[in-house]
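Work Package 4 report. The design task specified in the project plan requires that, given a folded chain encoded as structure tokens, an amino acid be chosen for each position. We show below one input record used in the internal validation round.
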């Protein structure tokens, strides 16, 4: 039976990750020792745990192997510095591609895809991440609602204060007989019409014998009727 290609990615569960680290570390140190003995080569291996603990193996001496490595790097850069830069860029690009693949795989997991290779521990860890994300999203949404409500209340108070100020200004104008211009025009036209209808008396003859005859002068409007 042909085994499928296993996608290398970070183990989310801390306990499983520590167990895997211990097993793979011991296996890697053993392989380094076997390689140095079987092939008679200089091997130097350094491993740092997540907590910073150092695990190392050197077929000769770690210090000598490090000096040998530095000397080799200097000779390589001196002979062809451009090629060394290209190799360094290739290494950086390869690391970035691996990080991108891991991020895409994690994204697919969060979207509910490619879950066939996940263990129970992985699914539980994924569920915790989703619950935490939902909690943060809901908290942010609630905060936005509160901010909107506060803003609307402040706006309502400002409008109410403006309304009270306008009402006070209108009351002061009425108390100070500051009648608006349209009202003045209506009052003036009404007074003019009342003056035009005044009755007058006309007397004919001597002062002692004159007869009093009532007479009404025509109004301005009656001349045109």
């Amino acid at each position: 039976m042909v085994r499928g290609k296993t996608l290398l990615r970070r183990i989310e569960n801390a306990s499983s990750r520590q167990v895997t680290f211990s097993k793979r570390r011991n296996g890697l140190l053993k392989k380094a020792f076997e390689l140095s003995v079987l092939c008679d080569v200089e091997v130097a291996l350094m491993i740092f745990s997540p907590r910073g603990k150092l695990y190392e193996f050197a077929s000769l001496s770690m210090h000598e192997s490090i000096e040998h490595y530095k000397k080799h790097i200097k000779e390589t850069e001196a002979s062809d510095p451009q090629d060394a830069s290209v190799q360094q860029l290739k290494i950086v690009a390869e690391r970035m591609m691996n990080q991108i693949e891991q991020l895409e795989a994690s994204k697919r997991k969060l979207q509910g895809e490619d879950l066939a290779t996940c263990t129970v521990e992985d699914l539980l860890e994924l569920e915790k991440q989703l619950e935490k994300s939902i909690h943060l999203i809901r908290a942010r949404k609630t905060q936005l609602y509160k901010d909107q409500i506060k803003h609307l209340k402040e706006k309502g108070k400002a409008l109410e204060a403006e309304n009270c100020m306008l009402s006070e200004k209108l009351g002061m104008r009425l108390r100070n007989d500051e009648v608006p211009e349209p009202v003045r025009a209506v009052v003036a036209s009404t007074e003019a019409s009342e003056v035009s209808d005044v009755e007058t008396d006309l007397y004919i003859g001597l002062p002692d014998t004159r007869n009093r005859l009532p007479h009404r002068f025509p109004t301005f409007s009656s001349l045109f009727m």
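The two ends are 122 Å apart (CA to CA). Validation will be extended to a larger panel in the next phase.
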